[in-house]
Design brief:
alpha+beta, 45-stranded mixed sheet, 16% helix, disordered N terminus
Length: 940
């Protein structure tokens, strides 16, 4: 035993010494530089790229082998500004120790430490990961014959106990599709073993700590783990995948199968299977953008997938697949949809270019639902679908364009079939029925939301037949029955082709219409508002998607409606009447409008009303449409024009009722027309006209009232008035007037500040023009010429003027002078301009005292200025100067204001003239007496 122990001891010592000598010998005599140069030369020739290795070492303690330090594989020419395609901190190949001692080469491990792979593709399609090997020239060697490193002969089969990638990363960037893929912390641990001489076996794991994919969206996946086991038969060229399990969060995908001839002409048959995964967990793997679109959606249930993929290289098609996806205990709900969709099973059967979706045990909002959808030819899909059950309208609302429907809710009971190619709307056939109960809809085409709607309709590809539709909007109750052509193709079309399509509707609309619905179409200015109800019975024909082209026919009855508008001094307290509509005419029958002070009745026909007067017509449509034309008769018991137009005229008590910048478009629409009017009483310029009649023409916003006749102030009147509204902000007025035998005092009281001065019957005529909405503008711009003639009347002097005339009468000894004087006639030319009412040679007789003549004006600013004189009668002049004397004239002036006038009679001048005349008469008498004496003397 002692001898055996010594032998073992000395053997171990020898082995240790031998190993030490081997290490020293390798370090001293092994050609490391030749090994590195050989690796660089062979690697560069194989890849067609420059390879750099900073250092090559032989390792002993971690296992005999070779370690290449800081290895890089360069990019192709022209890519010098990019990172190298491969950069590894270390590449190591290690051998088994004991087989090496007996001369056998067995690999134990291949290690890549911290490799970084940078792959890139440019806009022109070139990339840095396509390698072109360089063929070695015949007879060449890697170096000189004496110093060249001779590689060991290639083994027939190479196996590794371990293949490891430690902390690797991959960076892929493609400019052609703006995609980038980045991975970090890649760790691979696998084996490459030899099952027998011609079969490889491999088993291991791959872990990726982080995977990020960026294109139009950026997605970061959770850690990925792959476990696999496979064999490769070199003789039969068959890869058998026993299992390849990939775990991504809660999702586990298992693959198994066979791949034949993988290098030359591969064929594959693989089976795929997933674990049961919660639908919510699966949705969490979607990109953020897709998850954002599902914020209001909740999906629950368990999903599993079983399938098979077959690949045959060179065949057409080369890929064939089939499988089944099953979602059990499924439930789908949205926050904006009332009710949820539930199903015991949702089965999706998929095979090459075909998919079928079937619902089993499905309900929506606790109502049974059935659905079968088959899709063929994924490149140009053909769909066959059968759907029946109760469906929330909110689910199909997204299929309607926003210009038609913006929101919808309610339940629709449907039974539909559809078949056709989705790429061509005309090839899709629809048939089935739809019934809706208590739906709610919002649409830009409607003046208010539909609060409740029921529908019974039959659908086909070209025609939607509406058997019955009833809806409640505000206080309106409407019913419709008819048909709509091409609705479904239009809903399925894109925005470009849809703009050229016409969705024609033809049907009957009846019900009660809340007139307040029209308020949204009225102009904002003036805040107009209507109330009341209208009974309608219409037939509608035309394109539903172009409302301005709809052609209505039928009747509209209005009773007790109201209208308020800040641009109108008075609201319409009641509006009633009947309208008969046709595409080119609206006939108005006894349309009655009751204001606070007026009552009007309108009858007639409005020609070409559409589309110019439609509230939703745009400016371009109105500009190109013909102008509507109104033929009418207008009448009533009382019409106060002053409540619509400026109540202003030169007068003693002109009152401004408030500035009006315009009049409501309800009364001044852009129409032409002609007609007549007849009123019992018309208030115009605060004058009550009786039995006023006349004719009217309207053209280009000019209203011409002509052949106007009536009675006022117990006399007859006639005239013409034209109102030009071409500029709505600045209306223009022109006209002419005539009055016969009207009461002078009432007329002057209204139009002058001289009330209770002149009595009798007056004839007045003249013309005028003015402008503006308010009284101030009207009076400032007023220009008028006229003439007044008074016969068989009387005049009354009051105030300061009466006092001055009393003083004059006293001076000239007229004892029977009175302030009231009888007039046989008076003629007064009148002019109005620049805010002044002017008279020339206004003459009034003062009885025994004589007559007065005035020239001058009074202004709308209440100031006045007159001058003239009192011509004494012959009787008074005779008493003052004797028989045959020329009448005396006393100068008179009036200045100041209407409230405080100053009247001056020049009595001093009168006295001086009397003295002067008497002196002249005495001198003339002495002269005549001298002439007589002289004549007598001469006669003698």
């Amino acid at each position: 035993m002692k001898r055996f122990g010594k032998i073992v001891t000395f053997g171990l010592l020898g082995l240790i010494v031998g190993v030490i000598l081997l290490i020293v010998g390798v370090q001293l005599f092994f050609p490391f530089d030749e090994l590195r140069d050989y690796a660089i030369a062979e690697g560069s020739r194989t890849l067609g790229r420059d390879i750099t290795i900073e250092e090559a070492d032989i390792t002993i303690w971690r296992g005999p082998g070779v370690e290449l330090q800081r290895v890089t594989v360069s990019n192709p020419p022209g890519w010098n500004d990019e990172p190298p395609v491969l950069a590894a901190d270390m590449v190591a190949v290690r051998l088994r120790f004991w087989p090496l001692l007996i001369g056998r080469l067995r690999f134990s491990e291949l290690v890549l430490s911290e490799p970084t792979i940078s792959l890139a593709r440019r806009d022109d399609g070139t990339d840095n990961f396509t390698f072109t090997p360089i063929a070695a020239p015949e007879g060449s060697s890697s170096g000189d014959a004496d110093t060249a490193f001779t590689a060991p002969p290639q083994a027939a089969v190479v196996a590794f106990d371990r293949v490891r990638i430690e902390n690797g990363s991959i960076d892929y960037r493609s400019a052609t599709d703006s995609m980038s893929i980045m991975t970090d912390s890649i760790n691979l641990a696998t084996t490459l073993s030899i099952a027998d001489r011609d079969r490889y076996g491999s088993e291991g794991t791959l872990e990726v700590a982080q995977l990020s994919v960026a294109s139009t969206d950026s997605t970061t996946f959770p850690p990925i783990e792959l476990r696999y086991r496979a064999t490769y038969d070199l003789t039969s060229q068959v890869v058998t995948v026993d299992f390849a399990d990939t775990r991504l969060a809660q999702l586990l995908i298992s693959v198994s199968g066979i791949i034949t001839d993988p290098l030359e002409s591969p064929t594959a048959r693989l089976q795929l299977q997933t674990n049961d995964v919660a639908a919510a967990d699966l949705l969490s793997l979607l990109p953020p953008r897709m998850q954002d679109g599902l914020q209001s959606t909740v999906v629950s249930g368990q999903l599993s997938l079983n399938g098979e993929v077959v690949y045959l290289a060179g065949s057409t098609p080369s890929l064939d697949y089939s499988g089944t996806a099953e979602l059990r205990n499924a439930e789908l709900s949205r926050s904006d949809v009332s009710g949820s969709l539930s199903a015991e099973r949702v089965l999706v059967d998929v095979r090459t270019d075909n998919a079928k979706v079937t619902l089993f045990g499905a309900t929506f909002a606790d109502r049974p639902v059935k659905a079968l959808v088959v899709v063929d030819d994924f490149a140009d899909p053909v769909v066959t679908a059968e759907v029946s059950g109760a469906v929330d309208i909110g689910l199909i609302q997204p299929f309607f364009p926003p210009e038609i429907v913006t929101a919808a809710s309610g339940v629709a009971t449907v039974s539909l079939t559809a078949n056709g190619r989705l790429s061509s709307v005309d090839d899709v056939e629809f048939t089935g029925s739809v019934k809706v109960d208590r739906a709610a809809v919002r649409s830009p085409l409607l003046p208010a939301p539909i609060e409740s709607m029921t529908v019974d309709a039959f659908l086909s590809r070209r025609v939607v037949t509406i058997n019955a539709l009833s809806a409640r909007i505000a206080r309106s109750e409407m019913s419709f029955a008819g048909r709509v052509n091409d609705l479904m193709p239009w809903l399925l079309s894109d925005s470009v082709s849809g703009a050229t399509m016409s969705v024609d509707v033809d049907g009957n609309l009846t019900g009660t219409l809340d007139l307040a619905l029209a308020n949204r179409y009225l102009p904002e200015r003036g805040s107009p508002a209507m109330t009341g109800l209208a009974q309608l019975r219409l037939t509608i024909n035309g394109p539903l998607n172009r409302p301005v082209e709809l052609l209505p026919r039928g009747r509209l009855l209005i009773d007790g409606a109201t209208y308020t508008d800040s641009l109108l001094p008075e609201p319409i307290e009641s509006l009633s009447g009947e309208l008969s509509l046709s595409p080119d005419t609206v006939r108005v029958r006894n349309l009655r409008l009751d204001f606070e002070t007026s009552a009007l009745t309108l009858s007639g026909s409005l020609l070409r009303p559409f589309p110019a007067l439609l509230p939703f017509a745009d400016s371009l449509t109105r500009a190109s449409a013909p102008t509507p034309y109104l033929i009418f008769t207008l009448g009533g018991s009382r019409f106060d024009v002053d409540r619509l137009f400026p109540r202003a005229a030169p007068g003693a008590d002109t009152v401004v009722i408030g500035r009006q910048d315009s009049v409501s478009v309800l009364f001044l629409p852009d129409i032409d027309g002609q007609g007549s009017f007849a009123f019992d009483t018309v208030i115009y310029a605060r004058v009550p006209f009786q039995e006023l009649r006349g004719n009217v023409t309207i053209r280009d916003r000019v209203i011409d009232c002509y052949q106007v006749e009536g009675f006022a102030y117990n006399g007859a009147i006639s005239g013409r008035t034209e109102i030009d509204l071409t500029d709505p902000a600045d209306p223009r007025y022109t006209g002419e007037f005539a009055a016969d035998s009207i009461e002078a005092n009432r007329f002057l009281t209204r139009f002058t500040p001289f009330a209770d001065h002149l009595f009798g019957h007056l004839n007045v005529s003249g013309t005028y023009d003015a402008a503006g909405w308010d009284a101030e503008s009207f009076l400032t711009s007023l220009s008028m010429t006229g003439e007044g003639l008074l016969s068989e009347g009387s005049v009354r002097f009051t105030g300061v003027l009466a006092e001055r005339l009393d003083q004059l009468a006293s001076v000239v000894n007229v004892d029977n002078w009175r302030a009231d004087q009888t007039l046989r006639s008076l003629v007064a030319p009148i002019r109005v301009e620049d805010g002044r009412v002017m008279v020339d040679q206004l003459t009034a007789y003062l009885g025994e005292l004589g007559s007065v003549t005035l020239n001058g004006f009074y202004g709308f600013d209440r100031m006045l200025s007159y001058d003239g004189g009192v011509t004494l009668s012959p009787q008074v002049t005779q008493r003052l100067l004797g028989t045959g004397a020329e009448p005396l004239t006393v100068l008179i002036t009036t200045t100041g204001s209407l409230a405080n006038p100053t009247v001056t009679i020049d009595l001093e001048r009168l006295g001086a003239e009397i003295v002067e005349r008497k002196a002249r008469e005495e001198a003339e008498g002495l002269l005549e007496e001298g002439k007589g004496i002289l004549k007598d003397l001469l006669d003698r």
